[in-house]
Amino acid sequence: RISDSDDYGEVASLILSGDRIEPTRSNLSLAWDNILYNAEWQHLDVWTKMLQTVVMAFVGTLFASFIAFPLCFLAARNITPSRVTNQLVKRFFDFLRSVDMFIWALFFTRAFGPGPLAGISAIFFTDTGTLGKLYSEALENIDDKQREGVKSVGAAPIAVQRFGVLPQVLPVFASQALYFWESNTRSATIIGAVGAGGIGLKLWEAMRTNSDWENVAYMVLLILMVVFVFDSISNACRSRLMGGKAH
């Protein structure tokens, strides 16, 4: 293996054009293997855990959006006239979002054991309540003129919602879901520390040793880079959906 004291120029020359260190594989392959499976930095494990965190945030947010979407129509007073139904669904949303994601993570870690399933479930429960409330409020603030116009031509109730309501709220729904995905990428790091998997658990393990602070700094910088990238992507997508300028 290549020692850390070798000159960078000599290392690059050895990798690209030097004699093979191992006859059965190229020096480039050997160097890449050394990077991935480096015992000190554990790059492959850290990158895998970071990807796990991103996927955990994505899946939890996606499922929450799917469940909140139909329920928000039941919670909106101008869509569903039944006050009992409105109140039941809204109280359900209040219950889900009143329990902090961190507490949900502790509960599901005990129920399912440590791992991404607990993190996905915690994000799913919390975001279903929050997105449901936001979606229902967006529905209650739509312009009724468009809906009345569709009704006036004798359209069926489903068609009224499809053509009179959805075009007004879908960009808002998608924008909010994107924002929550970006936000949950950060949140998934925190709940990972209690056993929900991902980079958070890896970071906590490194911090508990009280000696691998260079690894802690490495993971923190990686988290910052990923959050910055997803913040930029989410902001650009939301700006396109809302027809505004990125902030």
Brief characterization of the structure:
The protein is mainly alpha-helical and 247 residues long.
How would you describe this protein?
With 247 residues, the chain is an all-alpha fold. It folds into two domains: 1-31, no CATH class; 43-242, MetI-like fold (Orthogonal Bundle). The chain has helices spanning 8-17, 27-36, 43-75, 83-98, 101-112, 116-140, 144-152, 157-196, 199-208, 213-242. Helix 4 (83-98) runs antiparallel to helix 6 and helix 6 (116-140) packs antiparallel against helix 8. The longest helix is centred in the C-terminal third of the chain and has 40 residues, at 157-196. It is elongated. The model is unreliable at 1-6 (pLDDT under 50).
